[in-house]
Give the backbone structure.
Amino acid sequence: MNETPAPEGTLTARYAHLGSGLIPVEPYISAEYYEREKAHIFKKTWLQVGRVEEIPAAGDYFVKKLDACDTEIIVVRNKQGQIRAMHNVCSHRLNQIAYDRTGHTRKFFCKFHGWAYDLDGNLTGVPDEKCFFGIDFKDYALTRVACDVWQGFIFVNMDPEPKMSLDDFMKPMYGDIEGYPFDKMTVGFAWETVVDCNWKLALDAFQEAYHVAYVHGNSIADAIDRSEGGSMPPLDALCGDLHRRLSLAGNQKSVYGNPKAVTSGGAAASEALSDAGSKRPIAASALRAGIGSARHAFPLDALPKGVNWTQSPNWLFDINVVFPDFYLSLRPNYCQAYNFRPIAHNRTLLEARVYYPEMTTPGGRFFLEYMKVALRDVLLEDLSTLERTQRAAETGVKKFMVLQDNELLVRHSYHVIERLLAEAEAEVNTAVSKAEAVTE
Amino acid sequence: MEQKVIVMAKREARTVPVALPEAFSDLTCFIGTWALPTETQRNTQRHTVGMEAIVEFKDAMLPKVDEVVAWLNQYELASLPEEAKTLMYLLLSFAEIAPAVEFYQQPAVIDGYDPRRFVADETFTMRPAI
């Protein structure tokens, strides 16, 4: 099949280096391809693992299993208030130090032989120390993992010497969304599921809006702003070196499609309620209950300029895909954070979180529950295709997928991974040939 | 031989819910089914009771919902007294059944992923107190 060039004015033409051709299915079904992704991507880049609000006090910690990095890490706040990450492996005989997924502790004690570590991972105590042969405590700390925080999101990097700082990793695409009021969204809900599909196949289902009219036809399709033809084109898309963004408009006459209504009130609320009152009376009652309840104000003009970057008055939300597996969707007064963590080439752990402002009244809490339940059910719609698509992909019947202009982010995702794998493998090959030249 | 005793973790105690305020006494018949403190319990109930029971609950709640909210709003969410919690849980169940009524016209998401596999983390540190 010949590649038809994308016409001028399309998103795809703007990113001509990504081409307009078909996307191979192989990366979604190959165990070997996944091993390459593990080695050259997941073990070499920044991965989002949680928010600072989850561990507010010194000694608070959580444990995160990262199968794609073949490890499990402890993320803990130390006495100075800094966030540290280390592998969950004792320096003595390798038992896991933390057993619980979350907790609070003064020190970590290994339950095998009682070795003790402080909140920075330093070894501070060894029972029967005199029976060892002159061990130096500083040689037996827990193995630290690079860890840094961007806008309250905690990232770790398995590379002992990360190629770039977290700031350099985030800034080129996301510098102009810094200042988004993440810190005012202190109420969170979390869900987890293991889906039998490739991690990219799961992520792809979230990085385009073409599916909304169909997959969400029963639920929130009416929340998206439709064009003349009934389709739901994005306001704009941005593709960077690694990351990608998509901005979407909402139907202002719906509760789900006009999220600003609950914190702006006034005309926005009247507009959201105008249709919902008759079509979705429970939604309308939830919105009425929620207006004025948020602990903080969320004035639209206070959002950083990178959020709703087309300045659309009908803006609904921006999808931000932080390479490789972190989906962050920003709305006027709440945000969603999903990680698609690979477990195997055909198995993915989805960690889904949504963060809302604290509501001061019971009525506001009712509104949050309405929004959360609607979101959760919409997610059940999103997830409904994944295992079926994986099984279909694994038949091998189709070798390629074809993408339309508004699926640009799926195309970009494929190209970024291909490029990084090629670069990393070229580097390895160069190193090998240099080593061979030396030995000859 | 000494018998090994395995102590099972206690199920969440279902204390007898405090009665509803006088003005909402006609909702009393829904307490047993819908006054549930967690999302998981409310969602499980939605998928257990059938659409007829969901609609019956919706029909009872909808005309009263603004009154229910107004009565609850005399309290701060953070310091809700026991007598208000039963009503609060009914209100949260009302949110739980909203998609069944307004999106799907059936209890479950149409063609949806199994909700029992999409597990809410009821111990998540950032969740609200109620």
Notes: Residues 179-405 of chain A form a domain with the Alpha-D-Glucose-1,6-Bisphosphate; Chain A, domain 4 fold (CATH 3.30.530.20). The CA atoms of residues 254 and 272 of chain A lie 5 Å apart. Chain A has a mean pLDDT of 95. The radius of gyration of chain A is 24 Å.
